[in-house]
Amino acid sequence: MKGADHNRARNRLRLGIVLFVLALAVPSLLLVHKAYDQMKWESFRLQQLIAEELADRINDALAAMVRAEDARSIDDYTFLVSSGDPANPYTRRSPLAELPSGDTIPGLIGWFEVAADGDFSSPMVPAPGISPTDYGVDAAELALRQARAQQIRGILVGNSLVERDSRDRRAKLASTPAEAPEPAVAGRAAQALGAVADREILMAPAPREAAEALQTQAEPERMNRLSQAAFERLARKEAAPSLKSETAARSNRTDALRLDEELALRGKRREAATLEDKSARAEADEAPLFAPAAPSLQQGGLPAEEAQERAPVQLFENAVEPFEVGLLDSGHLLLFRTVWRQGTRIIQGALIEQGPFLAALIGKPLATTVLAHTTHLIVAYRGEVLTSFRAQPDGRYPLASTPLNSGPPPLSGALLYRARMQEPFGGLELIYSVSRLPTPPGAAVIGWMAAALALVLIAGGWLMYRLGLGQLALVRQQQDFVSAVSHELKTPLTSIRMYAEMLRAGFATEERKATYYRFIHEESERLSRLITNVLQLARIGRDALVLEPRAIAIGELAAMVRERVASQVERAGFVLETTCDIDAEILVDPDAFVQIIINLVDNALKFAAKAETRRIEIRCEVLDANRLRLGVRDFGPGIPKDQRRRIFDLFYRGSDAKAKAISGTGIGLALVQRLTGAMGGRVEVAEQNPGVEIRVDMPMTRVPHRLPRQGR
């Protein structure tokens, strides 16, 4: 096989193996990907179920808190309340008169009440005329209570829920002298006040004195209505004015979150697939991804929406509307209700710090679940992101003590679950997103199987490639062998034919005839050795080699070898030295053993042809009581270390043989190793300086009476 043909065959081999490996790898990778994707979906679904359960827990906690607040009496929002025992009436401190500890409502700043006239009060501070010390409140505690009440009032004033200094302004207006208006004017003023709602008073034409009196009487009513307008806006769930820029507002909206909904939509499609008819599936596809929670039932068993829209039916002196929740511009949460007492409107509620409230009711339950390490829980109110909770990076903590960070939400990730709380916290929304899913229980097995499969494919492809290269090399060596054998056969045949023609033509004299006959004999011997090697190799290749080992003296074998190679060594200009005068017998097949030594001598003559010392040594030595060593040494350049293990490979020829164009077939030493092994012997290469020695160890049947001194 020529070099170009060999390269093309190697490229075709590479391409075939690559295509074969790909044909196995692609379906396998698809199966692995499908299995891992299924496990990923199952892990996602498990996380989703945990998120649903957590959302239900949070919703139940909020509902329980609202029920507890809804159960409070109207009178609880004052410092003192009646005992309620007609037989033993007395007054005591209200349950809301205590300083907030956060046990009832996390993050609670305090309770408050806004009267119909706009006056602010807190059950923490005694009303004027009540002695604090009579109810166990000393001066220091009273100062703390007043500071807390002032803090609540300041927050409400800052969010335009309570008029600043409304009580002083009403007192000033009340002290201003004014003439009584005429009856007609007073009637028109009363009619106008009944129609005013957060608008300027429309007054009919009247004398100047009547107008001043009407304005004096209308100012307190206008202030009262303005102070409660914000509560009405919160109850109607209208957006309050905000000082944030439009860009900042957009970036803090849930619409700005870019969450991947693929897995969530897959779960929705799987649920829709279980429906019985196509119309139900179509309705499921058109429905929102996650439906809000079912409306909660308020007083009287009415849904929250209906309870908001319906005004209270005042069949009694007092009426209480359901609680509402509002988010102030300052970030505080307001839980309040409207109370109608004898036809006047009163606002009662609680002011809550947003951060501690969300951390206790949402962050703390999250920290006790496995979601804490993998999930971002985004808390939003009416589309505006409040905060998000997530585990600290690389945190390895027990579930009960997982520290959480709160901060801005991630703008990307996979949407896990989305839930809206029940009224009155209907504006509060929980958005679960995951940046990474926990490793499924069987993912490691699939990973190991995929790795093992990849290793098998890669190793198998590499082994096939190496085997293919070996086969290509073998084919090339066989072709080189055929070429070399053809050359080796042609050379002696040409010499034999030339000398035979000269003898037949009578061109040779009597003196030259003997020389020609000797040449013909030597070339025929050379031809016979080559044919014998080829035949022996063929028998070994098909396991048809038949040997007949017998005990024979080593001296007799040495004489046979010398007789066969003496003329060849002499014609090559070498000297043959044989030192095998040992009285011992070895168990070998004589023909095979002689062929081994002839091949070694022939190999030494070829590679030491340019050596300064033109000598071939054949020597024998006894290794032990059972083995005898015979070595053939030359004084040539030797064999490189990296080629010593390969010289016994079939058809192998070293780089020196190719570079120096040394004749040979590459089967001589291979045949030496195979014949030696077939007779129970062993062959090895020993470095000499100069040259190399090839040693053949054979089993010995008769030990000499006195062992000679062991050689080198």
Silhouette = rod-shaped
Q: Give the averaged pLDDT, no decimals.
A: 76
For the record, the CATH class of the domain at 548-712 is Alpha Beta
Radius of gyration (CA) equals 55 Å
The CATH architecture of the domain at 548-712 would be 2-Layer Sandwich
Domain Histidine kinase: 484-702
Catalytic activity: ATP + protein L-histidine = ADP + protein N-phospho-L-histidine
InterPro entries: HATPase_C_sf, HATPase_dom, His_kinase_dom, HisK_dim/P_dom, HisK_dim/P_sf, Sensor_HK_Regulatory, Sig_transdc_His_kin-like_C
Biased composition (Basic and acidic residues): 270-284
Description:
With 712 residues, the protein is α+β, with helices and mostly antiparallel strands. Among the domains are: 3-68 and 353-434, no CATH class; 446-546, Signal transduction histidine kinase, dimerisation/phosphotransfer (DHp) domain (Helix Hairpins), CATH 1.10.287.130; 548-712, Histidine kinase-like ATPase, C-terminal domain (Heat Shock Protein 90), CATH 3.30.565. It has helices at 3-70, 139-158, 166-175, 183-195, 208-235, 246-251, 262-273, 278-286, 304-309, 354-367, 443-505, 510-541, 554-571, 590-607, 655-659, 668-678; strands at residues 80-82, 91-93, 108-114, 120-121, 258-260, 318-320, 324-327, 333-341, 344-352, 375-381, 384-391, 404-407, 412-420, 428-434, 550-553, 575-579, 585-588, 615-622, 627-634, 682-687, 692-702. The strands form four sheets. Strands 15, 16, 17, 18, 19, 20 and 21 form a seven-stranded mixed sheet that branches. Strands 3, 4, 6, 7, 8 and 9 form a six-stranded antiparallel sheet that branches. A six-stranded mixed sheet has the order 5-13-14-10-11-12. β20 (682-687) and β21 form a beta hairpin. α1 runs antiparallel to α11 and α3 runs antiparallel to α5. The longest helix has 68 residues, at 3-70.
